[in-house]
Specification:
The chain is α+β, with helices and mostly antiparallel strands and 599 residues long. It has 18 helices and 24 strands.
Amino acid sequence: MRSVSATEFRTHTCNELNLSNVGESVSLCGFVHKLRDHGGLLFIDLRDHYGVTQCVLQETDASFVEAEKLKDESIIKITGTVVKRDISTVNAAMSTGEIEICISGIEVLSQPEKPLPIQVNVDNEFPEETRLKYRYIDLRRRKMHDNIVLRSNIISHIRMQMIEMGFLEFQTPILTSSSPEGARDYIIPSRIHPGKFYALPQAPQQFKQLLMVAGFDRYFQIAPCFRDEDARADRSPGEFYQLDIEMSFVSQDDVFAVVENVLHSTFAKFARPGYSITDTPFERITYDDALLHYGTDKPDLRNPLLIQDVTSIFKASAFTAFAEKVKEGALVRSINVPHCSSEPRAFFERINDWAKSIGLPGLGYITMISDSEFKGPIAKFLSESELTEIAKINGMAAGDVTFFICDNNAAHLAGMVRTHLARELKLIEQNAYRFCWIVDFPMFEYEDELKSIVFSHNPFSMPQGGLEALNTKDPLEIKAMQYDIVCNGIELSSGAVRNHIPEIMYRAFEIASYSREVVDSKFSGMIQAFKCGTPPHGGCAPGIDRIVMLIADTENIREVIAFPFNQQAQDLMMGAPADVTEQQLKELHISVLQKVGKG
């Protein structure tokens, strides 16, 4: 099967030729991947987008002397005849490994003027600054090239999946208005409206909801989103892409079914051989249970360890180190590790030292010897009934060790301990994608710095219980119809069943200290649209970059983005952000008051 049609430059690509082509006259174009001089024979591994073909030139050929001068990564055209390799030289790792090209002519199309800053034909690592500055060279490397091809194939598959499920693809505006919610906006000054600004969309949130108001039933978009955020390993600063989805006349279950279908099929199609994937429907974990049992709202279910709350047991215990802290408001969390008693003493000392490095005084623990016998640093301070209750809550068996965390921030710290223990003991399941939904997020939270109630998640979500809940319940007890999809401890998406009733929207924003006038001003398009009648609707927006990152099995999102920013939100290749001319500033009615550093 042909990769591409023949052109005046080439008859085939560098992955196509095999034994069926022996004897044919062919022409190939590509990069000189490797050049090997075997004394009388010159071997050229020619690489293009599709693969590599070995070409050979004899010393007696007129082109030999010039060919010897070729540099790695020179771009050449080769003409020659396909010949069968000797059995001893067959390379089974290459699709073209049974043949080679006996060269009759070489044409140099282009070649580097000096040695390249990144060597393409080795697996060596290079400084990130160099890789990003010369990204076009970095992308020639097979691993990076494959990642970007994988990304393209994944997006194509997702698009076809959405279309097959009856979704229509629409494009929403890139220049829009600033929103008071969410991360920082990227602000764009208007030339024809002096003193006014556009914002790049943090997400197409309002537009996709307005498409539902407009009567479109199922929308999707591979949407660019822009947020002025700091970089993380799983988050690129500046821009990212998401599979934006919105549906009318749906419940939470309906949204879950669509997202599970597209994610499961995508991971099943592109995951590496031997990887297992959570069957649908994915497990659902409440936000409260996630914080309690995993210490995070982004649990990695490959880790089998669970956290339990044992605060009440220590409240009146003789172990005063914990009891006194509990009286002051601290919590006690426990983590049981099966069959851990056989670990050497050095393991427990190492875990204790690590605990001190994150601010804990250490990790207390007990070991279960039998149903009635316990040992460990804190076992002697606990009564038989207390030990029995701890064992029951944690499901302990003989040989198990239960660790304890006592702190005002015990929930978060226990999550860190859970992860560290699993990594140290190599308990994390390998070659697996474990999905779950986190549901029942709180609608509001108390912001200590502002000393007021604020939205804890998406402000456009429907509160569970609707207007009645907003009017009668403690705001901090109200749950929202919000959900996250998580895979291997990485949040792929947030979503919600939307608030489509104007009065509920006004009341929810009122609780978060937004007046009706502010809502009418900041969200005028949406609130006015809702007053025209709106179908119940909901959606989700899984992150494309993170999906590809997981499937490519890389820990850094920059490995699956063709031209990413660095951690300082700079494009080292194009020199962005950059200064602009005084004339440009004048046209935009902008004056730069002070420059702080460069870039």
